[in-house]
């Protein structure tokens, strides 16, 4: 039963992470980390799929190995955050919702800029 619940939660987290790629209010990374955790404890096959066959695999493997973002990822992620929130800000006409969106965007950008990045030299040495 425990294994089944973890597999279900893992696939739910993968689905939410995939939605988070295109929806600005839904984060991707925490759901991917949750899915990896669930699959590591319940299904070696699904865990392998997530790490080596999914779109997100290279990022998860990099995070597991270095506990840092790959070079250039911080700027790309910040651009995606700004673009998706900009679209939302253009589409939303309610002022208080715009303020909340701006606060969320600011929070996400601050969190993104605080994440460590491994440089190319460090990556070659490891």
Structure notes:
α2 packs antiparallel against α3. This protein is mostly helical and 126 residues long. The protein folds into 2 domains: 1-67, no CATH class; 69-126. Helices cover 79% and strands 0% of the residues.
Task: Give short descriptive properties of this protein.
flat; 79% helix; 126 residues; mainly alpha; 7 helices; 2 domains
Terminal residue distance: 40 Å
Shape by Cα distribution:
flat
Overall structural class, as computed from helix and strand content, comes to mainly alpha
- How many β-strand stretches? 0
Report the radius of gyration as a whole number of Å: 17 Å
Helix content: over 70%
| Helix and strand sequence | HHHHHHH
- Characterize the biggest β-sheet: none
Number of helices: 7
**Average predicted confidence as pLDDT:** 86
Question: What layout of secondary structure does this protein have?
Answer:
Blueprint: H1 2-22, H2 29-42, H3 44-52, H4 57-66, H5 73-91, H6 95-114, H7 120-125
Helix pairs in contact: 1-2, 2-3, 3-4, 5-6
């Amino acid at each position: 039963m425990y294994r089944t619940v973890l597999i279900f939660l893992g696939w739910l987290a993968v689905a939410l992470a995939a939605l988070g790629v295109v929806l600005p209010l839904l984060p991707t990374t925490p759901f991917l980390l949750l899915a990896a955790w669930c699959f590591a404890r319940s299904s070696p096959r699904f865990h392998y799929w997530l790490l080596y066959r999914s779109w997100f695999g290279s990022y998860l493997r990099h995070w597991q190995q270095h506990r840092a973002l790959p070079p250039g990822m911080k700027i790309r992620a910040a651009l995606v955050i700004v673009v998706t929130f900009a679209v939302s800000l253009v589409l939303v006409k309610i002022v208080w919702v715009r303020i909340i969106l701006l606060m969320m965007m600011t929070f996400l950008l601050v969190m993104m800029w605080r994440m460590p990045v491994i440089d190319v030299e460090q990556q070659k040495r490891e």
